[in-house]
Amino acid sequence: MTARAMMNLRSILIGSAVFRLVLILYGEWQDAHMEVRYTDVDYLVFSDAASLMASGSSPYKRTTYRYSPLLAFLLIPNSFLHRAWGKFIFSASDLLVGYFIYKILKQRKVAEDLCLYSVMVWLLNPFTFTIGTRGNCEPIVCAMILWILICLLNGQIIQAAVWYGLVVHFRIYPIIYALPIIVVLDPRYVQLGKKPLLVNWKSNTQKPSSQSSEEASTRYNLWTAAKSMFSKERILFGLVSGGTFFLCTGLFFHLYKWEFLHEALLYHLTRADPRHNFSIYFYHIYLQYGHQLSLVEKLISFLPQSIVQLVLVSSFAQDLPFCFFLQTVAFVAFNKVITAQYFVWFFCLLPLILPWSDMKLRWEGLSCVGLWMGAQLHWLLWGYLLEFRGQNVFLQLWMASLVFLLANAAVMAVFIRRQRCSPIFLQMKVTDAKGGVKSE
Amino acid sequence: MRIIGWICWRWKMGIIWKFFFCCCFIVVTLSIYGDCLSLEDCILKSYFSKNEVLTDSSFQDLLQDELSKFSCKLLPGDPNPQLTLSGLERRLIGEGSHRHLSSTIQLQVPPQSFPLQSCKLVMIERLPSGVFADPFELDHLFHHGAYAGIGVFGDTNLELPSVSSNRSAVEIHMNFEHSISSGAMSELGIRIDLPLHARYAPLHESGYSEVAFGTPDLLVSCSMEGSSGMRSCLIVPSHDSNRLRTDVVWKIPCGIMSHTNVVSVVTFATAFVSTLVIVFASVLYPKPR
Fold first, then answer.
1. Nearest CB neighbour to A392, from listed B253, B268, B279
2. What residues 122-151 of chain B have any CB closer than 8 A to a CB of chain A?
3. Contact A322, A419 (CB under 8 A)
4. Which helix (H) or strand (E) holds B162?
5. Which of A197, A416, B70, B135 could form a disulfide with A426 if both were Cys (CB 3.0 to 4.6 A apart)?
């Protein structure tokens, strides 16, 4: 990194850090002086669970604590240091995500100004800076996901696997990334002990360089993948990440028994909340609440998510950040419960794909933003009338959620159409028996 | 009405009676929150230590029992100290799923010379099925000095719809502004605002479910000089029902059963259409080269 680039990145990070500190201090003031709290109610849940853990009790004695004990462990200093300790951790993770975005893009030789704009897309996003300063733990998950990407870019398969097992234990949803990671660990591109060759960024005005002849010449297909499925890199990743996940899960099951398993894992897998949320399924769940759903109904609600995930992986796995982004948007949009904090899961991946997008801010980009935000605001309007005015607008609210899903699908289609999809890895050269270099 | 702190009394069987005011939130599954607000020996805690579910009849039985145990009579043959509930007005303030139940209480205290001290009003609100009080919100208000003490008991699960939840009850302790033993007639006005939230109601074709609130149980708890030292006692103020305006009904929007088929079909159809949009876009547009 040049000195000038460091200075600019440093300025952005320092400015963002100061702003977050001010928000945290303001939040403490608002909590102490106003009836309406700034702090998210989830943060109080984490803090209470951490206090229980500090006193030797189970964090699950705190009702609605549905996270890994690791989170409560991280927040133990809330009890003896300061109650805002956790907010500092989450905001620091948020800044770390900004740094990781820069690091990933620089590694792929993205132009400096684009790197900095991409970092600002994350750090200046209002969702981002409010979520950490209000005490939501999602920035930690985002930082872990990006670190996994960095490890994969550097060929550090074992480290990536350990972090991956840990993040799936922590939050479960990253399990959707398992398949594209396995796909991209193709022995032609990633080999144990060797740093992989990365496909560098090219602006849309640049002519293809000679590099392109060395890019993966064979299109991904299922048969190729099936044949090389059991490479040592893939097996190692699977074993290490699975081992990490089961080690964490086994340890906490030993400590906290079925309460941990139910609250931290099973609850999320079976969650179907009848209360209104962005999901198209909320009203259906409310109307059917208490009735046993038939096998057909369960299958129908499961199929759209599964089909979309499989198609996205088979189409875009080689462009791993883009695949992650699309998968996450789809996962959130088709989920049975959607809350605003889930949006952060794909906001942290958006800056990684922007340098490869042909979408201009005016007017295609702004239209996508307008469509997505507009659909959300439309839902929020009906939600306000239901929750704060007591009007029966269930049908309208449900229709607004349908519009929100369609808006998500439309935005995804535009992103796909405008993306200059690029594999992250170059095919590796190998030496033959006579010491000559050849491509595989 | 400002509450500046709370007074702790210890309540022991037999000789010395005190109240600890602690907010111990007990849910049906018997998990107790740590944010106790000093109502350790409140009436509702006694009730829920013996009963899992709140029913009006069993609660009334327990209340009668408590009143006879902790009477404010100096001697068994003495008449009960007279307190009159001269007015009770109840209103539901706000709109939507989050409202305040406001209770304005007028108490008349005749001049008497019995040594009652440090009295406080005890209000027990047995919430109907369909609404709940958030213990953590009440904890926050308690720490802002809104109550002398408060506790939520029963089913305090914040997430379940009313078909899957049981009733809960709130016990609130509020200090008086004037001492009852002042020797002069006192007219005391106390206002209690209780924030409440609506659960998702059972389905109904009208689109609204009505939740009616009953009359709260109002008691006065004081400490008095007994033969063995200070002890706590309870008084039920007498009242004229005609002067009480307690009808409060909360209309909560609810789902309509006749929407079921349309909602199911259109939900899955929309999911299918969205799937097709994404699948076609993925298939038609360029892949990673």
1. B253
2. 136, 140-141, 144
3. yes
4. none
5. A197
| Full DSSP string of A200-269 | PP--TTSPP-GGGGGS--SPP-HHHHHHTTT-HHHHHHHHHHHHHHHHHHHHHHHHHHHHHIIIIIIHHH
Amino acid at A140: I
Angle at A423 between CA A418 and CA A429, to 5 degrees: 155
Q: Is A328 helix (H, G, I), strand (E, B) or coil?
A: helix
Mutate: best of B282, B283, B284, partner A, most A CBs <10 A = B282
**Of the candidates A61, A311, A322, which has its C-beta nearest B278's C-beta?**
A311
Give kind and range of the element (H or E) at residue B129: none
Contact B279 A410 (CB under 8 A): no
Using CA atoms, how far apart are residues B275 and A331, in angstroms rounded to an integer?
Answer: 12
CA distance A381 to A436: 67
**Pairing mode, strands B248-253 and B208-213:** antiparallel
Q: What is the tens place of the pLDDT at every residue in B110-146? A: 665 445 667 788 899 999 988 999 887 888 788 777 7
CA of residue A122 relative to chain centroid, distance: 13
Written as one string, the DSSP assignment of A333-373 is HTSS---GGGGHHHHTTHHHHGGGB---IIIIIHHHHHHHH
pLDDT < 50 stretches in chain B = 1-39, 113-114, 179-181
- Beta strand B168-175 with B149-154: parallel, antiparallel or unpaired? antiparallel
Q: What backbone phi and psi angles, to 5 degrees, belong to A348? A: -75, -20
- Residue A271: Cβ-neighbour burial (10 angstroms; 0-12, 13-18, 19+): exposed
Q: How far apart are CA A222 and CA A384, in angstroms?
A: 47
- Chain B residue numbers touching A308 (CB-CB < 8 A): 275, 278-279
Contacts of B99 (CB under 8 A, 6+ apart): B92, B93, B195, B196, B198, B250
Q: A299 pLDDT band (50/70/90 cuts)? A: confident
Give how far B175 is from chain A: nearest CA, Å: 22
pLDDT at B269: 95
pTM: 0.84
Question: Is the CB of B273 less than 8 angstroms away from the CB of A421?
Answer: no
Chain A within 8 Å of B92 (Cβ-Cβ)?
Answer: no
Q: Are the beta carbons of B161 and A286 separated by less than 8 Å?
A: yes
Contacts B207 to A, Cβ<8 Å: 392, 394
> Does the beta carbon of B244 lie under 8 angstroms from any beta carbon of chain A?
no
Alpha-carbon distance of B183 to B110, in angstroms, equals 8
Cα–Cα distances in Å, from A97 out to A10, A89, A341? Answer: 14, 12, 16
The answer to whether A183 touches A228, Cβ cutoff 8 Å, is: no
Task: Give the residue from A338, A358, A348 showing the smallest Cα distance to A285.
Answer: A338
DSSP character at residue B71: B
pLDDT tens column, A382-417: 999 999 999 999 999 999 999 999 999 999 999 999
